[in-house]
Amino acid sequence: MMSSIAHASTWDKDINQFATSLTLDHHSNIYNDTDKEVGSSVSQFAIVNNSVSLFEGYGIALPFSMHRFSYSKDSDLDNTSFEFKPSAQFFMSPSSTLKFRSEVSKNQIFGGNIGAEFADKLLSPLNNKRRFVGMSLDVGQAPANEFLTVHVNYSDSELRNSQSSSRHSTKQIGSQYGFRVSEDSYFQLSGNYQWQQSNGRLTRLAEAGIGAITGLGGSNELNLIAGGYQRIENGQKGLFWTLSNSWTASEQLSFKLKTSQRSTLNNSASGASQLTTIYQLDSIFTFSDSHQLSLKLHHQKNNIKEIRDKALNKSIIAVWQWEVASGVVFRATASRAENSRFNIQDSVNRTQQKLGISVGYQW
Predict the structure, then answer these.
(1) Quick check: 134 and 100 in contact, CB under 8 A?
(2) Rounded to whole angstroms, what are the CA distances from 38 to 28, 307, 351?
(3) What distance in Å separates the CA atoms of residue 43 and residue 41, rounded to the nearest whole number?
(4) Of the candidates 67, 24, 28, 18, which has an alpha carbon nearest to the alpha carbon of residue 358?
C-alpha cells in the first residue's frame, strides 16, 4: 500500500514514523503581485515526525514538521516554517475519553493569500505565529445510543512584518450532544460561545445549531450542523453551517465534500468581523498499490459587510503519487490559484501557477 504518515488522532496502536522529502517548485508569481509577476524556483526540504505512545489508560502523541524554503530570485524570502502539535488522551472508561491538545506553529504568508486576504498592499510577506491549547471530554461513543462532547479552547495568532502587525486571540467554550434515531443515524445539537479579541478590541460570539450524522447506505457518510449566530456587541446576526460528506464510490475512487460558513475575525489590523464561506472537494483515485492520483478544489470567500470589502480565493491542486520502492515516494504536483478582492473603491485579481516534484523517504 501507499506509504503515508499516519494522522496523530490514530489512537489504536503505537506509531513511530519519520519522513524527509525534497521538493522543487516553480512559482509563476512569488510576490502575489498585480503589477509585475515575477517567477522563481523554490526548493523545499521537509522533515516530518509522528509518534503515538500508548500506556495503561492513556496515550501521548507528538507530531512535528519543519519546512525550509529557498527562493532562487530573492534570498530575502528564504524562511523556515514549523508545526508542533502535542496531544494526550486519557481513556477513563470504554465510553468516555478526556483529551488535551496544543499547537505551536510559524509560517510565512504573502498578502492576498488565505490568512492575509486583505493585506494585499504589503511589500514583504507576513510572519504568522499561532498558539493553541484545548481540552475536551467525550462521553458515549458510537455506536452508543447517545454522546456528549464538552470542549474549552484558547488560541492566539500574530501577523507581523516591518510594515504591519496585528494580534488576535479567542477563548471558546462549547458542547455537542447527539442521540441515535436509527441504526446508522444520529440527531445532534451544538452550542458555542467565544470571546474574541483583536488588537485590544473585544467581541463576543454565540452560536447554536442542530444537525445530523448518517451513514446513507454505508458507503456515504454525512455530518451536518446548521444554525444561527449573533455578535453580542453590534447585534450582528446570521446563519452558520458545517457539512462534510465522505463517499466511497468504489475500491479505487473516493470523494469528500466539505463546506462551512462562519462569522470569523478578519486578520487585518482593523480586526473587523467577516463572514467566511468555504467549499472544498477532495477526490482520490488509486490505480494500484503504488500509484495514486488526487484532486483538490477549494473555494473561499471572506466578506466584510460593514465596509463592502470582499476577498475570494480559488484553487485547484492535482497530485500524482508513486511509491517507487518501500518507503520511497515520488510526487508530482500542479496547481493554480486565483486571489481576488472587491470593494467600493477598487478590484484586484491575481493568479499563481505552481509546478513541483518531490522525492521523500519514510521509515
Answers:
(1) yes
(2) 6, 32, 12
(3) 7
(4) 24
The rounded distance, in Å, linking the Cα atoms of 303 and 15 is 42
Of 221, 232, 225, 287, the C-alpha closest to 255 is 221
The set of cell numbers assigned to 202 is 473585544
CA dihedral 280, 281, 286, 289 (to 10 degrees): 20
Q: Which pLDDT tens digit goes with each residue over 260-317?
A: 999 988 776 566 788 999 999 999 999 998 999 999 999 999 998 777 788 899 999 9
- Of 226, 224, 259, the residue nearest 241 (C-alpha): 226
pLDDT tens sequence across 114-158: 888 877 566 678 899 999 999 999 997 655 688 899 999 999 999
Q: Give the DSSP H/E element, type plus range, for residue 217.
A: none
Closest CA to 107 of 77, 70, 143, 81: 81
Query: Residue 313: which of 302, 304, 324 has the closest Cα?
Result: 302
